[in-house]
C-alpha cells in the first residue's frame, strides 16, 4: 500500500499532463509557459527556502551526498568505457555520457521523495540536491562542449551561461548563503515561498507528462536505451550497495536510491542541441529513461 500511495500520485499527475496535452485542453504553448513558471520560479523558490533552513551539520546529509557523488562518478566512468566498447559515434558521445548520469531531481526526485517519505525525506533530499544539481549542470556543459561538433571559442563563458546561471543553481547558492549567514527568512515572505513551493511539485509532474512525445523516438535507439539503463538501473543498484557500505540510515538510503532512479533531466536535451551535440539521442534518452524509471522507482519504494 505504501508503494501505491507513493508512486500512484506521481503517475496520475504525469498522465494528467499527457491527457491534457493530447486533448488540447489548453491553447498551444500553454505547457511550455507552465514549465517556464515551474523552472524559473516554483522549483527555485522551493529549493531556496528549503536549503536556507536545512541543518548543514547533518551527518545523514553528508552520507547521502557522498553516496550520490560516488555513484555519479562511477556512472560517468562506465559510460565512457561503453563509448569505447560500443564505438559510440563521436558526435553522440556528449549526449550519451550526459544521459547516463544526469538525474531529474527537481521535477521527479522531489515529488517522489515527498510522497514516499514526507517532509522529513524532502528536507534530507534538499541537503544533497543543491550540490548534485550544481555538479550535474556544470559537468554536463563541460562535457558537451568537449564533444561538441562545433568548438566553442570561450568554454568558460559557456559554462557560466548554461551552468551557473541556471535558476536552480542560483537558488541553491543563495539558499546556502542565507543558511551560512545564519539569517532567517521573514515569516510573511516565507509563507509566500511555501505556497509557491507547494504548487511547484505537482506542476512539474504535469508539465513532464505533457512534454512526453513517444512518436519522437528515432535514430540510435539501442545506444539511447543503454544510456538510460545506466541512469535508472545501474545507478540505483550501485547506490544501494554504496549507501549500505557508508552506513546510511534507512531514510537516507531510500532517498539516495530514489534520486538515483530518476530519469535523465529534460533540460539535457535542450542543452545538447544548444551546444551542438546529438539532440536526437538526448531526446531519446529522456523519453526512454522516463519510462524505465517507473520500474526503478517502484522497486526503490517497495524493497527499501
Automatic annotation (TrEMBL):
It is a multi-pass membrane protein. Keywords: Cell membrane, Membrane, Transmembrane, Transmembrane helix, Transport. This is AEC family transporter. InterPro entries: Mem_transp_PIN-like, Na+/solute_symporter_sf. GO terms for biological process: transmembrane transport. Belongs to the auxin efflux carrier (TC 2.A.69) family. Pfam families: Mem_trans. It comes from the Bacteria. It is found in: Cell membrane. The chain crosses the membrane at residues 6-25, 64-88, 100-118, 124-146, 167-186, 192-214, 221-243, 255-272, 284-303. GO terms for cellular component: plasma membrane.
